């Protein structure tokens, strides 16, 4: 008997009815706007605090007051540094960005209960078509700013993106965390997840695909092997350990990965940390795969590329949904094949959003860039515009499949699984909203 079938279905008759209605109207290929909440689940109201500390009668007022005081204190401390830009420069070899905190191009929740993503296009016609994707569930600019400010300070401390911190600030990864984890109100948890994400991005920029940051394909395997030991420490014999420790501290990417994981470990159970390690190891395999195409000068086929985008994906970020939310999905449930299938499809879809939105940036770069439209154009012999449309259809199919399968799993799963699957759905919405607005992808 599988884990899920052992779990009794909740007595949620309205949810079942809503789910059946959703699935009945869910015709393949029909253009319908994605619902804000995963069918069969209820979104938490945007901006509501979650019980990450003690719960029970009389504790919520105390908790809210404490959170508010902590945030006020932080803001007061930061006030003197407002607007500070440490370095003028470039990230990933791209020109200087616009103002930090630029908000998304499309509406955020709070708005209609169901919305889609608007199509945008540049004058070369390589814009992003309307995607089947839920809207972001909340927008809390103050929370985003707080997380982003602290994230940039941390990047400075650990030494990543030295000389390029203005671009990091402008990209606004704090906003990504705020948008993608709408059921997490604790800035420190959002920061911990943001550190892990930025360290993973830095691994990509420094080692894989940005020569201006020192990436070299011939050194990729060696760099990634060393970087992995920052996530899963090597335990060397005593005579080698001190010099090894010194080496670990010499490379900013290793320092960032280790520091990000340390911070996360304050909130994550060992099984959740092990989950992240696994997803990062898989991510690094994906980095290697891309490096192999680069060194061969080979464009992968569409199937190979799609399988790649499942492993070189946002899954390490999505996997932290419960850690940021303050609960723990058991390892055995996370690993259940139907859960894995649904969550990895969502991760691929989220990463195809990156492919679509980063096309303009990559189109302008001098090196070989891999993204789904380019791969499709090559294999199908079609125009880039047509390949973009086909990529959007693939994205939409993955999101619809996630919606259907996750909704069914949520109905029969535990409350943690239901919340996790709803959180992944929300992650998709926040991710698209961030890509639509971040200067990293929007011509700044
Ligand atoms: C945060 C995280 C897990 C990043 C790892 C994977 C990654 C870098 C992406 C999914 C983004 O892909 P890409 O290399 O195309 O990045 P940019 O478009 O340059 O942001």
Automatic annotation (TrEMBL):
<dbReference type="InterPro" id="IPR034686">
    <property type="entry name" value="Terpene_cyclase-like_2"/>
</dbReference>
<feature type="region of interest" description="Disordered">
    <location>
        <begin position="27"/>
        <end position="59"/>
    </location>
</feature>
<protein>
    <recommendedName>
        <fullName>Terpene synthase</fullName>
        <ecNumber>4.2.3.-</ecNumber>
    </recommendedName>
</protein>
<keyword id="KW-0460">Magnesium</keyword>
<comment type="similarity">
    <text>Belongs to the terpene synthase family. 2-methylisoborneol synthase subfamily.</text>
</comment>
<keyword id="KW-0479">Metal-binding</keyword>
<dbReference type="InterPro" id="IPR008949">
    <property type="entry name" value="Isoprenoid_synthase_dom_sf"/>
</dbReference>
<dbReference type="Pfam" id="PF19086">
    <property type="entry name" value="Terpene_syn_C_2"/>
</dbReference>
<dbReference type="InterPro" id="IPR047945">
    <property type="entry name" value="MIB_synthase"/>
</dbReference>
<feature type="compositionally biased region" description="Low complexity">
    <location>
        <begin position="37"/>
        <end position="59"/>
    </location>
</feature>
<feature type="region of interest" description="Disordered">
    <location>
        <begin position="75"/>
        <end position="120"/>
    </location>
</feature>
<feature type="compositionally biased region" description="Low complexity">
    <location>
        <begin position="92"/>
        <end position="119"/>
    </location>
</feature>
<dbReference type="GO" id="GO:0042214">
    <property type="term" value="P:terpene metabolic process"/>
</dbReference>
<dbReference type="GO" id="GO:0010333">
    <property type="term" value="F:terpene synthase activity"/>
</dbReference>
<dbReference type="GO" id="GO:0046872">
    <property type="term" value="F:metal ion binding"/>
</dbReference>
<keyword id="KW-0456">Lyase</keyword>
